[in-house]
Specification:
Layout (H helix, E strand, L loop, with lengths): L1 E3 L2 H14 L5 E8 L3 E9 L15 H13 L3 E10 L7 H6 L5 E8 L2 E11 L4 E5 L1 E2 L7
Parallel strand pairs: 1-3, 1-8, 4-5
Antiparallel strand pairs: 2-3, 2-4, 5-6, 6-7
This protein binds zinc ion (ZN).
Length: 144
């Protein structure tokens, strides 16, 4: 399971998706791992894909490093990557699967007509190398 520490953090991610429409946006989910992953910070990264930014993203490596450093400074880690699917469902694509790293959570937001529609989180099953859906919990909690 992956959990957003509060609604504000979740909304920050959604805002980035809406703002970037009709292009795919991407960023890092930063936080801690307890019995489950807790997302405490959202870090936006540039999508460097110029050819098909409506359906592809290519995360800026420099942004990734900056995000990793921010995580380390806060005694946190990069838990995964979020990106948007403008006018497409929140299902992981074959491209997403091939680019996926083990243990990372891949949160995909479906943004339809510049509005948030739905989201799902995907984790690679290391045995089958297929994506498995991971439950997202956005219940508000005071002390995680
Ligand atoms: Zn995708």
């Amino acid at each position: 399971m992956i959990k957003f520490i509060d609604q504000v953090t979740c909304d920050q991610m959604i805002e980035i998706g809406i703002k970037g429409y009709p292009f795919e946006i991407c960023g890092l989910l930063i936080g801690t791992v307890k019995e489950y992953k807790v997302v405490e910070k959202i870090f936006e990264c540039k999508n460097l894909n110029k050819l098909k930014p409506e359906t592809r993203y290519e995360m800026d490596g420099k942004d990734y490093i900056n995000g990793e450093q921010l995580a380390a400074k806060n005694h946190m880690q990069v838990l995964g990557i979020f990106h948007s699917h403008p006018d497409h469902p929140d299902m992981a694509s074959e491209t997403d699967r091939q680019a996926a790293w083990p243990e990372f959570s891949y949160v995909i937001m479906s943004i339809q007509n510049q509005k948030f529609f739905s989201m799902k989180s995907w984790v690679l099953n290391e045995k089958t190398m297929q994506f498995q859906e991971e439950k997202i919990d956005i219940t508000l909690t005071e002390n995680v």
